[in-house]
Amino acid sequence: MKPSEELRQAAGLAYYEMKKLFRAMKGRPLSGPPLIATTLDADDARHARKLLRERDGWYDPAQVEAFERSFAAWNGSRQALAFMGGRVALSAIISALGLGPGDEAILPGYTCVVVKNAFEFAGVKPVFCDIELETYGLDASRMEEAITPRTRAVLLHHLYGLVCRDYERILHIARNRGLYVIEDCAQSAGATYRNNRIGNLGDAAFFSMELSKVLTTIQGGIAVTGSEELARGLREYRDSLDYPSESEIARILQNIILDFHCYKSRGRWWKADVVDRYLKDRLIVTTTEGEAQGIKPASYARKMPAPLAQLGANQLFKVDSYNQRRRQGAKRWDAWCDDKGYNKPCVIDGSVPVYLRYPVMVEPEKKLDLRWAREELKLQPGVWFLSHFHPAKDILEGCPNADAAVERCINLPTLLD
Ligand SMILES: *Cc1c(COP(=O)(O)O)cnc(C)c1O
User: Fold this and answer.
1) Is 380 left (phi over 0), alpha (psi -120 to 50) or beta?
2) What Cα–Cα distance (Å) separates residue 276 from each residue in 75, 171, 248?
């Protein structure tokens, strides 16, 4: 970069910050509530700083086991194992179930590309089915039609923090047809169904602690199961993996500190811009471009090291109160939907959602151009998902409901203050 250009950039930033300062002085809101890393607070940042200073215990498995036990207890699961991502936890489950080439698994045709990848990396053929539009979950009738003699497993998901509409029907069909059930709980940690936390009715489930999820360590994931045999398989897979390197761990810890400064600290109104302008290359991108195209990254499968387990344990202390706040926040959007004539997301009988985001089907042009929301709602909505295999652009045929969700579903933040 030429010095003159740097100067121009700095002048631009200064002008922008001055404008924001005037807004602040007039008591006007500076930016809407963030969509990511909203549960990283000052205590997490302090903890991350301490961990960066004291590196002795970084590869101590006892810390990780303690976190796994706390997570299992919190979720009411028999066993929990921690990895470097929900996608890795899913790969562990696929391995523990013994799925491989020649097998098929049924998946919702509206998901993250990394879910599809985990099956393909193991040689399993994913077969995609349409979703319903009440909770954006797998449609049980479509799922039943997709079963072939090669089908061995079905993956259902609880999206946006909602418990999926056909939960019981899918479990029932799978049991009758001898299929394994994997639950994708990446967006819904803490949601309950008939007074039990989700993730315990299928054979195994995974949770994510990526930066946009219910609880976060920037990167991380957990697999849970009630079966001792599957737990052995998960442990075997886990024990075969490496830890991330010291520099990777340091980078994640630094990201936790940066996230706190961007979204939670008192100076976030200017710090977020500085990070955005000058420190962007330090921010972690959890799904690389290659991964979105189905290429397995060299550093894909890792197990969770102690610093992230310690931070995860701290997140676990707070997750219930954050989820309670999200439910409160959702009430604002319930009223907004009623006012605008939009359908509210469906809360199935016996379930308590956590509303990681509040999904609404709006007009397609409103999803394409979100400027109306900045005016009307004073915030930036999320766009999960912009394609059938977010964020990949692949086209999926034969799933009209998923098409409609891709075209019209936006999501609103639920941690509003
Ligand atoms: C985030 C997410 C995943 C993947 O979790 P990572 O921790 O990012 O690997 C899987 N499924 C859904 C629905 C997700 O939102």
Assistant:
1) beta
2) 36, 44, 21
pTM for the full predicted model: 0.94
Mutate to test the pocket of ligand 1, among 35, 162, 208 (most ligand atoms within 8 A of CB): 208
Q: Is 187 a pocket residue for ligand 1 (Cβ < 6 Å)?
A: yes
Largest CA distance in the chain: 70
Strand partners, 223: 81, 206
CB neighbourhood size of 50 (10 A): 12
> Is the CB of 410 within 6 Å of ligand 1?
no
Q: How far, in whole angstroms, is CA 385 from its chain's centroid?
A: 12
Cα-atom radius of gyration of the chain, to the nearest Å? 21
Q: Is 85 in the pocket of ligand 1 (CB under 6 A)?
A: yes
Ligand 1 within 6 A of CB of 156: no
- Residue 222: strand pairing partners: 82, 207
Q: What percent of the chain has pLDDT over 70?
A: 98
Q: How confident is the model at residue 285 (pLDDT cuts 50, 70, 90)?
A: confident
DSSP code at position 303 = B
The per-residue pLDDT for range 43-57, each reduced to its tens digit, is 999 999 999 999 999
Reference 206, options 221, 195, 228, 194; nearest CA is 221
Strand, coil or helix: 67:
helix
Q: Which residues pair with 91 in a beta bridge?
A: none
Report the C-alpha gap between 244 and 226 in whole angstroms: 28
Q: Indicate which residue's Cα is closest to atom 13 of ligand 1.
A: 186
User: CA–CA separation, 404 vs 109, rounded Å?
Assistant: 12
Instruction: Please give the Cα distance from 39 to 45 (Å, whole number).
Output: 11
Q: Give residues with Cβ within 8 angstroms of 42, minimum separation 6.
A: 260, 264, 265
Residue 157 in tokens: 């998901």
Record the tokens describing residue 329, joined without a space: 């926040």
Are 214 and 322 in contact by the 8 Å Cβ rule? The answer is yes
With CA atoms as reference, report the closest residue to 70 among 241, 202, 207, 186.
207
Rounded-to-integer distance, Cα 222 and Cα 90, Å = 9
